[in-house]
Each structure stands twice: as C-alpha cells, then as structure tokens.
UniProtKB/TrEMBL annotation:
Alphabetical list of InterPro entries matching this protein: Met_Sox_Rdtase_MsrB, Met_Sox_Rdtase_MsrB_dom, Mss4-like_sf
An example Gene Ontology molecular-function term: peptide-methionine (R)-S-oxide reductase activity
Pfam families: SelR (PF01641)
Region (Disordered): 136-157
Top enzyme class: oxidoreductase
Keyword vocabulary terms for this entry: Oxidoreductase
Domain MsrB as annotated: residue spans: 14-136
Source species, domain of life: Bacteria
Designated gene of the protein: msrB
Descriptive protein name: peptide-methionine (R)-S-oxide reductase
Amino acid sequence: MTVFDLTPPSDAQRRDITATLSADEKRVLLEHGTEAAFCGVFLDNHKDGVYTCRFCGLPLFRSSAKFDSGTGWPSFFKPYDDSHIRLIRDTSYGMIRTEEVCARCGSHLGHVFPDGPRPTGDRHCLNSVSLSFTEQGDPLPDCLQRGAPEGQPDTDS
C-alpha cells in the first residue's frame, strides 16, 4: 500500500499543468508519443535519486533500479511502488505491447517488456520527457500541492 495520494488531478490542476508543458512533453505524455532513441536527458543520468512523473510528480522509479538496456531509452527493472504504474495492452502499429502510464494522472510513460535483468525480468522502457528527477536528499515534487505524505519513504530505499 502506497503512502502517496493516487487521486487524479482536478480538471483545473490538469489545465494548469498542461499549460506548462513543452510541445514535446504534450506529444509524449498526453498523446502517447515516443521520443527519439539515444537523445533523452535521463538516458545517461547516473545520480542517486527518484524519477517522478513529469505531469503530476508521483514517484515512479528509484535510480537503484535503473540499468543500461542499450535500447536508447532510460530503463528500469522495478517501479518505486507497483501501485504507481498502470499497465495497458497496446496494439498500435501492428504490435502487441504493454504500455505504462502513471497510475495517478494517466500520462504516458513508455512500455514494459519481459526481457529485463533479475530479479524481476522486466524492462520498463521510458521516455525522458515523461520524467522529472529528484536527487537523493532533496524533497520530492508536490505538483498537486497535497503536501508530503505521512511516513514518506527515504528516496534511496
């Protein structure tokens, strides 16, 4: 059970946040687009911290679960909390894949594939523009102005 409030943003919050997004962020987060391989800002990020949803700030992945998949996108083997990710069957472009969206706001993050490393065997392949990064020791973003959750876990757990 997560300590984070998974209630979706209000319509007003959604409008306000959408107004701050770049054209590329809107295309990926809201229209299920994909950024070009090997160009995302977080592909080679090796700092300790937490990757959060660019739209609503929900923690999605810890840096300790990041690995170099060689695919050109930031990849992770385990979510911050399973309840923070929603999986959707994606049959677009003549393929069958599993799309990942933020469980709180529904923003498109990327796809998950069953070819990752141990211990999970999963490769969560994400778009950098779908993410924000909070370095270890810094407070997590509060985009929805809900305050820090009680008992917020350490970002390096």
